[in-house]
Queue: 2 jobs
Job 1
Amino acid sequence: MTVVTRFAPSPTGILHVGNVRTALHNWLWARKYGGRFLLRIDDTDLERSKEDYVEAIRADLAWLGFDIDGEERQSARFALYEAEFDKLKAAGRVYACHETSEELDIRRKILLSRGLPPVYERKPADAPVPEGVAPHWRFRLDHGDPIEWTDLVRGVQHFEPKTMSDPVVRRADGSWLYLLPSVIDDIAMGITHVVRGEDHVSNTATQIQMFAALGAAPPRFAHEALLVGTEGKLSKRLGSLGMASLRDAGIEPIALAALLARLGTSDPVEPVTSLVPLIEHIDFARFGRAPARFDEAELALLNQKILHHTEHEAVADRLPATITAARWLAIRPNLMTVAEAADWVAVFDGPLAPPPVDDADRPVLTAAAAAAPAIDWGADPWHALTAAVKEATGAKGRPLFLPLRRALTARDHGPDMAELLPLIAKDQAVARLAAG
Ligand code: GLU
């Protein structure tokens, strides 16, 4: 069996962190089993779907590195839905309904007030049909056997169809609701695994009967626990946090993927620099049913950790040209984002305005300025410089190192000076020490 998964967003908005998590898990699963990962654009709602969003979705998936093996659009498949719908209608599995939403509302309230479940009540076959009212359409659930499946995340699931309303699958204006086209497509596209949020669990129960009604075996299902923020529900801001704002904040796509691959499992989040190790480890059995907590601070920290392992060639196209491989290696332990690398350009090549020198530090700088011109910059200039200054002034430890770091980098903190100094041109360094 070739694994086929799909990510099926509605292009009615940009992808947020929760959608991306679903996309990631589908992608990882397909890649792990050498299968196919499809992008299905769920654009049956022609009014709310926007081409800009379709493009943004593609761009975000590309940014994340989730390559797709095919793209389908539901709006191009209405003829197929129509044909399958006709079959279900002929078989009596979809039927016309004429109630208005007000009528349904009242009925629901009455049932609830009597302590009964607010399940849709089918009309008797001979009930009068109101004239001039275009019908909407429901799928007739089979009230026989319970609906069961073994969910890859949630384990055995069990629904009593009698306790469920026949779902509306088509509106009176002929437009499609999500449920039926999704099943028709999952069959037509040979989807083997449906991975999506647990808000779809009861949809799955009805869809399992739709697969059967259309003569197909259902795929496997994995329903993931919801993503929540640190204080419970995913806040409005986080819930709508798009890839563009994460990118602007300097978050690397791999950092987001590394976090989302492990949230909701008890496995530690690893600072990986490629998607490959995430592919090997994806296993729905490792996901728990408790909500997965998304913490932006954790993401920022992971981003930083990952940068500390990131090779120059992976980021070179986003670095100033003067940040060479050696310079990148020296500064990466001090970066929160790739963009911050630009702040180090002046440290290497100037112009730099070192802070005013404390009087107490002046002897160290005077000795350094005197010793520096004779030092071989190609060997180990930092150790040669500090040894010479120590010998001339007796300074050691912080009173020796800090004034030198300040004069040479205009900062109190930064990379190991032994690594940094050979990467600063000798005449620059000598001039900075002399300026002190
Ligand atoms: N368009 C649906 C959604 O975004 C797809 C759900 C599914 O994966 O079947 O909720």
Job 2
Amino acid sequence: MNVLVINAGSSSLKYQLLNPATGALLAKGLCERIGIDGKFTYKPEGKQAIKEADVAMPTHSEAIQAVLNALVDKDNGVIGSMKEIDAVGHRVVHGGEAFASSVVITDEVMKAIEECNPLAPLHNPANIIGIKACQSLMPGVPMVAVFDTAFHQTMPPVAYTYALPYEYYEKDKVRRYGFHGTSHKYVAGRAAEMLGKDIKDLKLISCPLGNGSSVTAIDGGKSVDTSMGFTPLAGVPMGTRSGDLDAGILEYLMGRYNMDIKEMVSILNKKSGVFGVSGVSSDFRDLENAGAEGNKRADLAVDMFNYGVKKLIGSYAAAMGGVDAIIFTAGVGENSASQRLAITSDLEFMGVKMDAEANKVRGEERVISAADSRVKVLLIPTNEELMIALDTAALVK
Ligand code: ADP
């Protein structure tokens, strides 16, 4: 069985063709500048990537058609015909409280996803455009929606309720939703396999750390708390997002600089985080280099990020009454040995002891804690596309 995984944004679309049974990747790529001047990238597994500029892509439909053409192409294709695409898995950002798991897309499901649009006005409409384009180009092929938020629907009210007037939850759906769910679910499953334990018996803290970062407490395979909130702006400081902050600051700054709320929120999303503090970059590699050259604010930004993750690990261990394993994944989590060490330093009191040698690794599934560490620390490369393909295959079988 082959599953086409689609992650549609407003002007871009990422895709992968996978065999979920074996985990084999057949091809992947990216359509960019949809509606502008169409850039197309296609990489069949084991072969050179093909890049084309100025591909006519006025809408997502032409972009997906270009993907399908490439997949069945005589010379560089990976399948004989479209019949070899058994299902399509779509990443959808927000499923609100309507979706606690992935779901086969029907007309009713489409309506329910559209009802979640106000919760993710930049993302859900683009996801929907991608689904509709696939439906018209691939009639009869089953499609599945996999939500970033669904995994966190198991959180109890004590974790998801904001201390605001309760009617904002009841009437306006303001609550913690959490994001990165596909990634948290994937690494939690892998962690159970690596530890040779039933996931139901494990307390895990998963940390996908990258440009966007979130930390999740997973008890018995279920998300019980997570650092992102109503939007992905919450939690630890990120590349350019502030993470948690005192809402009183908004009124103070908006008054001093005569800003409206749009300008303020744009600063919180795009000019804050490690970029804002360092004034150097949102990229942790640049910060590491700047720090090595003596830039104190770059060091401060990285230290604040690491400290933020460490504090969440401590609080989630408290929330779950213990922790069996801490998982690092995504750009920073998979690559930065120094940040993994900094985050886990001084946690010996709660049973975390790193193996500095084992930690000198990138992007490889591995235990990086010492043999006698009570809490295991795991490096697990994330694979959201495979998780989407697995969920899709399980639902359409
Ligand atoms: P996104 O949240 O956009 O998916 P990624 O998971 O791709 O982000 O992570 C991107 C981040 O990972 C960047 O800040 C990048 O600098 C960081 N990163 C990648 N490689 C390294 C490395 N070797 N050391 C430190 N950070 C790294």
